[in-house]
Amino acid sequence: MAEPRVLVLRAAGTNCDAETAHAFVAHGASAQTVHVNRLLATPTLLDGVGLVAIPGGFSYGDDIAAGKVFAAEISNTLGDHFRKFIARGGLVLGICNGFQVLVKTGLLSVPDDNGAASPITLHWNDTHRYEARWVHVSVDASLCVMAPKDKRLLELPVAHGEGKLIGTDPNMAARALTRHQAVFRYVNADGSEPEWPANPNGSQGHIAGLCDSTGQVLGLMPHPERAMFPWHHPAWTREPQRSEGDGASLFRAAVAAMR
Amino acid sequence: MRWQIEVLPRDPSHDSLGSVLARKLRALGVPKITRVDAARLYLLSGALTRADAERVAQHLLADPVTECASVHEWEHYGGDAPGCVAVFKKHGVTDSAEAGVLRGAASLGVQAESASTGMRYRLEGVPKAKLQAVAESALANLAIENIQVGSDRFPAAKPLAKGRVQRVEVPLIHANDAALEQLSRRGGLSLSLAEMQVIRAHFAAVGREPSEIELESVAQTWSEHCKHKTLCGEIDYRGPGIGTLPGNARISNLLKTTIKDATTVLDRDFCLSVFHDNAGVIAFDGNWALCMKVETHNHPSAIEPYGGAGTGLGGVIRDILGTGQGAKPVANVDVFCVGDPNMAPEDVPKGAMHPRRILRGVVEGVRDYGNQMGIPTVAGGVFFDNRYVGNPLVYAGTVGLLPVNRVRKQVSPGDVIVVLGGRTGRDGIHGATFSSLELHDSSETADAGAVQIGNAITEKKLADIVLQARDLDLFTAITDCGAGGFSSAVGEMGELCGARVYLERAPLKYAGLSPTEIWISESQERMVLAVPQERVAPLLKLAASEDVEAFVLGEFTSTNQLELFYGHECVGSISMDFLHNAVPRVERSATWEPAPTEGLPLPAAADATDVLLRLLSSPNIASKEWIIRQYDHEVQAGSVLKPLVGIRHQAPGDAAVIAPVLGSTVGFAVGLGMNPCYGDIDPYGMACAAIDEALRNVVAVGADPDHCAILDNFSWGNCAKSDRLGGLVRAAWACRDAAVALGTPFISGKDSLNNEYRVGEKTIVIPPSLLISALARVEDVRRVVSMDFKAAGSAIWMVGLTRDEMGGSHFLRLHGQRGDTLPSFDGVVARATFATLHAAIRSGSVRACHDLSEGGLAVAAAEMVFASDIGADIDLDLLPSDKAGHDDRILLFSESLTRFLVEVPEIHCARFDAQLTGVPHARIGTTNTQARLCIRRSSSGRTLVAADAPSMERAFRAPLPKALEGGDASHG
Which of A3, A93, B11, B830 has the fewest CB neighbours in a 10 Å radius? Predict the structure, then answer.
């Protein structure tokens, strides 16, 4: 079987591309990091690729809103190519800024009861401040092919200012949960409903990661690529030895889904 | 056509910025404010229809869920906004959002020519007359922004001032001394009379007058910043000797005699490049080297904390990009020294900003620049003392990773000078130059010229290209544009061959700059490269592929001349030899007298538990979590030990550890040492203590003290005054003595020697402030230890001797005393202690290790307890000390050097005891399940300290959020 191919898409201000590529390579994929200018010039670079990853960072400085300009380029210029890519079974993963990009392209949405897309966004954290800390998230793996299959509860780091998922429709979060689109949710360590800082941004339904209705497009605020090695965990020196960080589960599942 | 677009929240619940600002304004003393509504403003120009503007407004600028937008034709827009203030960038200030807006608009098929941004705030509960003042206090940055009250219409652009582009001759060779001094002063050249005389003699010999640009080139090259004239000059020291410093000595080149001498004497083979490149370089593993540089950016941060701190960090990151043939920045550190954030507003000296505002500003500056660059900020500190009130200190440092075969750079005649990165503007041209006198008179750009304006995304794009170009072998040498801009960068690179420069080629932020302004502009985010002819085209192509501007500025020659052209005119030509080697040596006198002794008894014995809780809450010891969490400390995925460790990720780690090569287990630790309190007693002892502390920090986590390098950063008062310089001599000498004793070389350093603040007749001098940074290799990151206790039933060992050394301690500071006896440094014992403790950690004997610093044993033990919720029972009678019979307060709170608390499992105790043979150590207690610190005297049966983990943690965590936000610890 051919090695699954990942295209890591970066733009001005992307800064998690190297570790994202490394996480895929460590799980048996090949990863090519491509500047968005190249993809704009040559959309056929998507041919033969199994997964497009949009890593974390501050694309174009996040000046209008996080991920907004990068999202505009993808949806206005590359939109058809991405839709074709997804239609032929391609996977798209957005981490942190990549999640913000995917939400703002409309590639990630929670359809309303009539199947129409109702707008969602990732708004400023309730603290209106960038914060870095580790959180617990629960996993719903029923729909998303990239969701970790071997763990129900993960510990991952978050580092963002705009991660509060909200929608125009007040029932957005409830629907996302029912339809298993809410792949990751912030929880307390014991699995119970969180408050700040366990839910670091005030996200509706405590949603930390969302997939589209095909399960092929996934975005999440936490950084699984920063939870790969045993020593990434903030308290690893006081806990029983781990073989890997919890984030590895996601990359393992994503690479398996490409095969 | 121009379109003004406003974007505002659909509903107040979405206006998180507005609600945060309302809270911030209340904390800053605007109590009656009831509500703030925030709106973003855009001005879009170009051949655009209303439909185009609407399209951009709806599909790019406004969020579909939270915001709505309205579009006005700017020419006919009234802009009435009662009760509102609007904030716009000053003319000539680059709008960092512009590029993104234009790019996003283009993707919608709308080709705009330019875009500007602004903000509008509606302030409820603030009387109209107060709006301006309130806006100045928190909503605008007056260095780069204007406030408009009552109208939100974008101001019309003013025409920009134009500089003269012809060669400007300066009559100098026949000037008398008084005229020379006036020339230097009026031109803001900061050249002394002796230096001006040397310049006069040089041009008299050449037989012509200098041009303005030549004089500026000399001034930049000979600046204290570039040449370290004080440290490298002649010093007549009058004062007692100490260590190897003789009393009443004449010192020729203090830097070479002390700090560089230590490195030369030690001759460590892991030092790959020291003191001559933009950063010091040490060996790391077979393929990689590590480099580090720490800079200060004090005065810019005093004027404008956010921009000053951001560009300070941006500058040191470029130092790393410009080390060897380009290193990858992998970690940042930052240290701030500020006044008390709880200072009463009326106590803030005239013209200075409140310490709270300064600290918030510098934190935000480092946060935004460092986070956007994608470099983890892994270590730092904040030191509070009211003498920093008018002159805060901002230290920013960066560690880089460099392929071992790229450590050296090479400039050859014929190489092309290529500039990469941002455009050149008037930013950072300090003071008045000859041409700018007329320029700044009536032009708004004068204001923009005074500050440096950073744009992290421009630098991130630049870094991406530099590292790719390095790996493609597209250049042979690189340096950054820092102080002095092109003049310093090209001048340094061409020092040994010569250079020819065509200034009209530089892309400008706006038209109208004179050749001199282009030459010395300190616009940020620019790097200068030496590129072999045949690689110029591929380099320019690579840069263009990622929208990074690149142009050919000139070429390196073999003429040994620096030749400057603007169009066809030669505006300056000056010998490299004169430029670099003719600066006359400065002669300074230095005096030092021992500080008068206080001779006070120890403060009356209060309850030691109460003292401990107050120490944990004192600003210098209390948690900096409010700051740390705003920094990304894990990007690049190299994080091994984070700045916050422990069971709730809330306790202060001794040093951060990073494994920068993904997949490899070789890492490094960064530790910092700084003790300004000690400097009031003797800067010699202070410097030894800072070095000991930096080393303790890296040793405590398991880094190798024998593969460790240190950096010095001196921030001092005005060293033209002999008493300030006397302290500096002693501190520098201590650096030499301690480094030699420890076998730890210096690899890089920097000094900032004029940190004083004048209010009327009074001068506030900062305390002597030496920051020592340690960079140490970690052979295997899987063996590092953190400071939190790991298990009940372990032995607690104390390593190191406790002495009656309360001078400068936080215990005395808490009681309003300074004390007389500083902690003493014994290099032989320290070196042996670091080596044996390191061996014990490597062997796996140690589960937790914490160094003892501010607050001594009691504070260190408390931190280990609340970090873990594991209790400790400690018997003071067992504490190793220099002599028996010390007072409890000394044993609990003395800050004697080279001490560690170590948790060792019972089964490893015998081995640990043997491993520590030859250095003072003793078992002083045991851990338990009680989540409580208990320190007692077995001899008397008295319990001295009894405190539970939650109350200690609360004391430690609450103060900073309260001081900075006026809020509680939780939502801060």
Answer: B11
Three-state DSSP at B410 gives coil
For A90-126, write each residue's pLDDT tens digit.
999 999 999 999 999 999 999 988 888 889 999 999 9
Q: Residue A27 catalytic?
A: no
B848, B856 Cβ separation under 8 angstroms? no
What CATH number does the domain containing B102 carry?
3.30.1280.10
- Stretches where chain B sits below pLDDT 70 are 160, 430-451, 966-972
**B902: helix, coil or strand?**
strand
> Chain A 165-204, CB below 8 Å of chain B: which residues?
166-168, 196
Q: Judged by CB atoms within 8 Å, which residues 110-129 of A form the interface with B?
A: 119-121, 123-129
For residue B825 the two structure tokens come to: 């440094």
Contact A228, A245 (CB under 8 A): yes
Q: Rg (Cα) of chain A, in Å, rounded? A: 17
Q: Does A241 touch chain B (CB under 8 A)?
A: no
Domain-embedded: residue B24: yes
What average pLDDT score do residues A76-80 get? 94
Q: Is B377 helix (H, G, I), strand (E, B) or coil?
A: strand
Grouping H, G, I as helix, E, B as strand and the rest as coil, residue A84 is helix
Structure tokens belonging to residue B255 = 């830097």
What domains, with CATH codes, occur in chain A? 5-258 (3.40.50.880)
Strand-pairing partners, residue B176, are none
In a domain, B699, yes or no: no
Q: Is residue B444 part of a domain?
A: no
Helix, coil or strand: residue B715 = strand
Q: How many domains does one find in chain B?
A: 1
Whole-angstrom distance, CA of residue B804 vs CA of residue B783: 35
Q: Do the bridges between strand B943-948 and strand B932-936 make them parallel or antiparallel, or are there none, so unpaired?
A: antiparallel
State yes or no: cis peptide before A197, omega within 30 of 0: yes
Contact A18, B635 (CB under 8 A): no
Which residues span the domain enclosing B129?
2-151
Contact list, A168 vs chain B (CB under 8 Å): 64-65
